[in-house]
Amino acid sequence: xxxxxxxxxxxxxxxxxxxxxxxxxxxxxxxxxxxxxxxxxxxxxxxxxxxxxxxxxxxxxxxxxxxxxxxxxxxxxxxxxxxxxxxxxxxxxxxxxxxxxxxxxxxxxxxxxxxxxxxxxxxxxxxxxxxxxxxxxxxxxxxxxxxxxxxxxxxxxxxxxxxxxxxxxxxxxxxxxxxxxxx
Length: 183
Description:
Number of domains: 2
Order of helices and strands: HEEEEEEEHEEE
Radius of gyration: 24 Å
Distance between the termini: 56 Å
CATH topology of the largest domain: Immunoglobulin-like
Strand order of the largest sheet: 7-3-2-1-10
Largest sheet: 5 strands, antiparallel
């Protein structure tokens, strides 16, 4: 009977050891893999847009608006992992603007918080394409082409870039947010 208990204890210990080794073999990486077998990958970014982030600051009817933007880079990579082509999808929601606010432009710009930069990635909005009829609305654009240099620069230093939207009342920008890479 003692021999049976020792065997069960040994069996249980072996099971625990096997589970531990199996878990260790799985790795402990907390960064999700974003590349699939077709050499395509995604990089995800968010930006919290606020008029208070614009430079220079302004105070008019549109200063109560805000929004959230999610940007997905769709990347093609070669066998060595180098980006060979890139497009971006943009999805944002906005609220707090005066009814009838119409966007005139939307871009990714280089620039840390408090500094301005020239547009780098242009969403090429057409006149009247995005209007917040009730003061709230969304902006969705897909398949915006970027150069590989643009994509790599943004991926390597997301916080050094910002996204903003523009209106006729605030042509320099009405709401802005620094990019944060989430994947």
